[in-house]
């Protein structure tokens, strides 16, 4: 048991409440209290002058009371409530013990402070604790108020229940209550100790440290163990939490920064390792692309040179053929003249000449007509050839237009394919046509018979070359690209459908999350409602318990029910514990509780019913008695003698028998009533009076037992001296006399006797019975007895009337008591509302459980949907990355549209290429028709020439005959021979010349065709060069490629690379400096690289390693553009090519390393050496001041031996030690400490 010390003797009022005269404005402890915490229910402690002594045995709760009050109410530190510092005392434990029957327990801890500052002033510092047994959690609200506990702040209501939070808030105001320990601590520091700000908080922390040190229960033992210095050191103010937290947080941040820097360095190493592989991969690709460009440039130069050479050779051969043909024609003309002369000369003889002149003239005319027809026919063939050339040129124009259309479609198709993300490397090169306008060929043609060969500009078809040469293969390639675009459109469509599905599923996931949130809110509301219903149920349970307490202890209940033992019934638990009915406890059962009043009323009911029954029985008995009395009265009034009372063992009498009392009477000797009464009583007690008298002088008892027979002895002193036969006896007097003679008078050894004092004997039986006077023996006695009896009956009847009236009054009182009992029972507490609230609480708890299950299912479904959506999204992302497709619906729709447009463009391009191919075939057919027309023209012109020669021969013969008619024969023969020789030689020369001319024309046509093909090849090689060069330029412009190739090079190497890239970008594919630019670019790319080329398998292995190592810090995106694998790293800063990301990582690592070093120096110099050291200096100064103040306090104190006490504050270590050196350095302010000292 813990109590406050009794008043000191000699004080006026028992307590010396006088405060010290100094510092009247300081608060002092005045009262403290514990309400419904631990095993304390409502305890209050008074302080005397701010002091209190708790006295009690070990384990009585002294330490526990202080642990709950101080300094907990001052610092609100639930972790340091235990005075031993072990941390074993917890609010949950304090609230659980002593309140096992309270599932929701409320308790208060409070201190009342007072001060005299212009009058008494009070301040209450308290805590409200609410404990829930279901959650085993205790929640605390702290408050400070000027209201006093027990006066204007009542913590227990009329039912002795602790005040709830709402009622407390209404009393003291919401602004005075807080759940925050730090806020409460600051409020106490400010309002009680006048401390505010950071310095005030630190001073208050020091005060609390002192309190915690001094309140330890073994502090006295430690002093006795010479540990005073240790105690005082422990009690010194601690270092500022702010300074330590600041330094600690910055040191923690340094640890975090170091870890982050190490992680960044590891990431840098991983990226560098990958970049070493990726750099080799990029250099290998670029070197291969440069080699391809160089080789293609060589192919272009070789093809162009070959085409030019062939074109020059064809032109020379045509010129040589023309010259040979012209020379052959001249020689042939000379030879023909000679042949004509010969023919003319052979016919010079006069007689032949005369005879032949007319025939020759007719023949010459016919030949001329035939020749003119041949000339007209050749003119027609020339017109046909000209028309064929015109048609060929027109088809060439159509072909050129088709080529232009196809090229436009190819350009649009390329752009569309690029926008759709379809690789265009397989797309045919530019579709071009080269049309060379052919100069008319000048030839000598015979236009008339009279004229010589005249020059004629013969039209030639334009030379048209189309590239690429394999248009059908190009169309098939475009069809393949169309299929690729269609596949990409289909893939984009499928991915788009998946993306749309993911969007819908994401919305479904969000709806599921919202539904789970709503379900959780609903579950929370249901739980709150269940708790509210449980509180209402428990409040109703307590109210019902209080009602039962009030009802059972009320004076009316005691008056109506009488003494009731409530300790054994269902109400007993309620009387002992007001919380007996809270929760869903089945004991006591509510139906039993509802019957408790009735059960308690049962004794009263039985008592009242018994009283009524007794009254009824008394009425019945009195009624029966009255009837008996009235019957007896009537019989007595009719002179009927009353029968004497039969003995218990004698209930019947033989039939026809006469009792003895009717046959006898007293003699005159028995003249005293007392004697007569004694004799009659003795006879009655012995059974002789009521015994039956028979004629054979036998006296038989009423139950058939024979008392006297005629064989019985005659008494020596019979009773006949006092008794005689009655004169009106129905039995003969002799018989009666015989019987009386056998009954002795007095105890003289006779078997059957009676005496005058009422004694009697009959065999072994004897006894005594007296009566005042006789009632049955003798007529006079019987008459007197009748009169006396009538008087008694009259009195008894009057008494019965009075008793009946009294019973009626008593009956009415009892009925009134029954009515009051029933009315009072109607006021007994009813458990119906509690039953309803229990049902409501049960239903709400079940609803809460169902709601929680539904919330759990909803959350599980949401998590399941989210997990499925995440997996589907990751799979969608992986498939999109694998197909180089975007991921969003809009982007995929754009890709789908672009791919479908690309497929459409590819279809149009394929149609255009095939149309171009058909136009080329038409043009080729036109050229074939030109060749055929030229052939027919050459035949016709040949026929003209033959007809002209035949006509000319005849005409020359005719002219020769006419001219030379008369020339001699010898001269003519000589001329003929010479002319034949010359003609033969000339014809041989003409044949040789024409053969040479034909060969030259044939060779020229072949060379010209070869030149055309070489030019076409050169154009194709040029296009291929443009493609390879464009491919190289595209690769060089891809993000991160150049940076990867020059990774970790010097600035000069990077600048050389930029110059080489700029040079090859500015040059056209036809530039003669292209080879030099390629050579410079190759040297720049391969500069300083002696490693072997790398394949994609090695790159993929390095990529897998990089994915695994960087999965937690970066997202790695792979794309393939122009055959180059591009890697990008994505982090919070954005999306960067891997080479640029590697450079940024290097910069970040260097910056982080430098920043970390600078940060370390700054933290240690500013926060550790500066902040903590300055705080230590202040604390050392405070300690010195405290020691000096303590010395001042102890200055006037001496021991019983007159010894004074002084304290000395010094370090345990020498000044030369490390700790002493630190103390010396710390005693200097950081503002005046040198940099050397700071470094030290």
TrEMBL record:
Which segments carry the region annotation Disordered? 1-22, 509-538, 617-642
Q: Which InterPro entries match?
A: CHP02680, P-loop_NTPase
Q: Which residues form a coiled coil?
A: 969-996
Q: Which UniProt keywords apply?
A: Coiled coil
Spell out the Basic and acidic residues composition-biased ranges. Answer: 509-525, 617-629
Q: What is this protein called?
A: TIGR02680 family protein
Q: What is the organism field in this record?
A: Kribbella speibonae
Taxon lineage: Bacteria, Bacillati, Actinomycetota, Actinomycetes, Propionibacteriales
């Amino acid at each position: 048991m813990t109590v406050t010390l009794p008043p000191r003797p000699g004080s006026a009022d028992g307590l010396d409440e006088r405060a010290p005269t100094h510092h009247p404005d300081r608060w002092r402890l005045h009262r403290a209290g514990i309400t419904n915490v631990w095993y304390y229910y409502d305890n209050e402690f008074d302080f005397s002058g701010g002091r209190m002594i708790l006295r009690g045995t070990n384990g009585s709760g002294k330490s526990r009371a202080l642990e709950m009050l101080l300094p907990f109410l001052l610092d609100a530190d639930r972790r340091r409530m235990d005075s031993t510092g072990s941390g074993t005392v917890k609010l949950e434990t304090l609230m659980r013990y002593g309140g096992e029957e309270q599932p929701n327990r409320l308790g208060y801890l409070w201190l009342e402070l007072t001060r005299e500052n212009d009058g008494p002033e009070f301040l209450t510092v308290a805590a409200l604790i609410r404990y829930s047994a279901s959650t085993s959690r205790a929640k605390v609200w702290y408050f400070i108020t000027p209201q006093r506990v027990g006066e204007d702040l009542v913590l227990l209501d009329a039912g002795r229940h602790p005040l709830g939070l709402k009622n407390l808030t209404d009393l003291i105001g919401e602004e005075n209550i807080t759940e925050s320990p730090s806020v409460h601590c600051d409020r106490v520091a400010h309002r009680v100790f006048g401390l505010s700000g950071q310095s005030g908080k630190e001073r208050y922390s020091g005060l609390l440290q002192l309190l915690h040190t001094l309140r330890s229960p073994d502090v006295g033992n430690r002093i006795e163990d010479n540990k005073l210095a240790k105690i005082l050191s422990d009690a010194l103010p601690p270092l500022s939490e702010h300074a330590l937290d600041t330094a600690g947080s910055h040191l923690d941040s340094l640890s975090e920064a170091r870890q982050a820097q190490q992680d960044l360095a590891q990431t840098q190493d991983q990226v560098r390792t990958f970049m070493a592989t990726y750099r080799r991969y990029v250099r290998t690709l670029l070197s291969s692309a440069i080699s391809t460009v160089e080789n293609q440039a060589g192919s272009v130069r070789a093809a162009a040179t070959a085409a030019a050479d062939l074109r020059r050779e064809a032109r020379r051969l045509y010129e040589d053929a023309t010259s040979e043909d012209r020379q052959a024609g001249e020689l042939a003309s000379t030879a023909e003249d000679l042949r004509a002369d010969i023919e003319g000369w052979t016919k010079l003889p006069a007689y032949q000449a005369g005879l032949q002149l007319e025939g020759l003239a007719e023949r010459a005319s016919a030949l001329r007509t035939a020749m003119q027809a041949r000339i007209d026919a050749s003119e027609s063939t020339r017109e046909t050839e000209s028309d064929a050339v015109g048609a060929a040129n027109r088809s060439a124009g159509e072909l050129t237009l088709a080529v232009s259309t196809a090229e436009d479609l190819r350009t649009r198709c390329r752009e569309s394919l690029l926008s759709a993300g379809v690789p265009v490397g397989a797309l045919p090169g530019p579709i071009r046509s080269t049309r060379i306008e052919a100069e008319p060929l000048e030839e000598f043609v015979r236009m008339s018979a009279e004229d010589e060969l005249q020059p004629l500009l013969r039209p030639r078809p334009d030379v048209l070359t189309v590239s690429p040469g394999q248009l059908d293969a190009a169309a098939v390639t475009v069809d393949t690209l169309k299929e690729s675009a269609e596949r990409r459109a289909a893939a984009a469509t499928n991915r788009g459908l998946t993306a749309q599905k993911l969007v819908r599923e994401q919305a479904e996931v969000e709806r599921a999350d919202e539904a789970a949130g709503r379900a959780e809110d609903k579950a929370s509301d249901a739980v709150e409602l269940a708790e509210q219903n449980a509180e209402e149920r428990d409040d109703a349970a307590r109210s019902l318990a209080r009602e039962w307490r009030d009802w059972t202890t009320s004076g009316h209940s005691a008056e109506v029910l009488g003494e009731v033992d409530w300790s054994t019934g269902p109400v007993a638990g309620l009387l002992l514990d007001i919380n007996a009915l809270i929760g869903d406890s089945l004991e006591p059962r509510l139906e039993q509780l509802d019957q408790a009043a009735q059960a308690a009323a049962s004794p009263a009911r039985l008592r009242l019913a018994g009283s009524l029954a007794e009254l009824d029985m008394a009425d019945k008995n009195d009624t029966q008695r009255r009837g008996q009395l009235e019957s007896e009265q009537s019989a007595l009034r009719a002179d009927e003698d009353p029968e004497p009372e039969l003995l218990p063992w004698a209930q019947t009498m033989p039939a026809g028998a006469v009792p003895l009392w009717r046959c006898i009477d007293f003699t005159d000797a028995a003249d005293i009533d007392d004697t007569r009464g004694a004799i009659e009583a003795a006879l009655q007690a012995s059974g002789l009076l009521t015994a039956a008298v028979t004629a054979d002088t036998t006296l038989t008892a009423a139950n058939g037992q024979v008392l006297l027979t005629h064989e019985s002895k005659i008494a020596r002193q019979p009773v006949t001296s006092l008794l005689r036969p009655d004169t009106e006896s129905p039995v003969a007097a002799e018989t009666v006399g015989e019987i009386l003679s056998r009954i002795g008078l007095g105890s003289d050894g006779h078997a059957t006797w009676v005496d005058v004092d009422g004694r009697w004997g009959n065999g072994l039986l004897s006894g005594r019975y007296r009566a005042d006077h006789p009632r049955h023996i003798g007529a006079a006695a019987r008459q007197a007895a009748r009169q006396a009896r009538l008087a008694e009956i009259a009195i008894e009847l009057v008494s019965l009337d009075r008793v009946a009236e009294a019973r009626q009054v008593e009956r009415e009182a009892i009925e009134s008591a029954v009515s009051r009992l029933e009315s009072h029972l109607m006021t007994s507490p009813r458990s119906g509302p509690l039953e309803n609230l229990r049902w409501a609480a049960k239903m709400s708890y079940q609803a809460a459980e169902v709601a929680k299950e539904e919330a759990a299912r909803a959350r599980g479904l949401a998590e399941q949907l989210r997990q499925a959506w995440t997996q589907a999204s990751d799979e969608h992302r992986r498939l999109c990355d694998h197909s180089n497709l975007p991921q969003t619906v809009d982007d995929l729709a754009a890709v789908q549209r672009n791919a479908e447009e690309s497929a459409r463009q590819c279809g149009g391009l394929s149609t255009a290429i095939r149309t171009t191919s058909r136009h080329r075939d038409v043009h080729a057919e036109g050229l074939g028709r030109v060749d055929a027309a030229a052939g027919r023209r050459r035949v016709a012109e040949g026929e003209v020439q033959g007809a002209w020669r035949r006509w000319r021969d005849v005409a020359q013969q005719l002219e020769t005959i006419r001219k030379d008619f008369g020339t001699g024969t010898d001269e003519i023969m000589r001329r003929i021979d010479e002319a034949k020789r010359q003609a033969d030689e000339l014809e041989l020369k003409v044949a040789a010349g024409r053969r040479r001319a034909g060969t030259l024309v044939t060779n020229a046509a072949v060379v010209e065709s070869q030149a055309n093909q070489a030019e076409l090849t050169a154009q194709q090689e040029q296009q291929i060069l443009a493609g390879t060069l464009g491919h190289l330029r595209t690769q060089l412009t891809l993000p991160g490629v150049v940076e990867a190739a020059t990774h970790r090079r010097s600035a000069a190497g990077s600048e050389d690379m930029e110059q080489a890239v700029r040079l090859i970008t500015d040059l056209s594919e036809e530039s003669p400096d292209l080879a030099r630019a390629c050579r410079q670019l190759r040297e720049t790319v391969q500069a300083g690289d002696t490693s072997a080329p790398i394949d994609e398998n090695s790159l993929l292995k390095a990529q897998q390693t990089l994915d695994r190592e960087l999965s937690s810090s970066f997202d790695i995106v792979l794309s393939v553009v122009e055959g180059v694998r591009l890697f990008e790293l994505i982090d919070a800063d954005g999306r960067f090519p891997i080479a640029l990301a590697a450079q940024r990582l290097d910069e970040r690592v260097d910056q982080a390393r430098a920043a970390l070093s600078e940060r370390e120096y700054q933290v240690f110099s500013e926060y550790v050496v500066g902040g903590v050291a300055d705080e230590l200096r202040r604390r050392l100064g405070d300690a010195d001041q405290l020691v000096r103040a303590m010395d001042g306090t102890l200055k006037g104190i001496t021991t019983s031996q007159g010894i004074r006490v002084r304290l000395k504050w010094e370090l345990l270590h020498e000044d030369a030690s490390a700790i002493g050196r630190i103390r010396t350095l710390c005693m200097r302010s950081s503002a005046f400490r040198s940099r050397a000292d700071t470094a030290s």
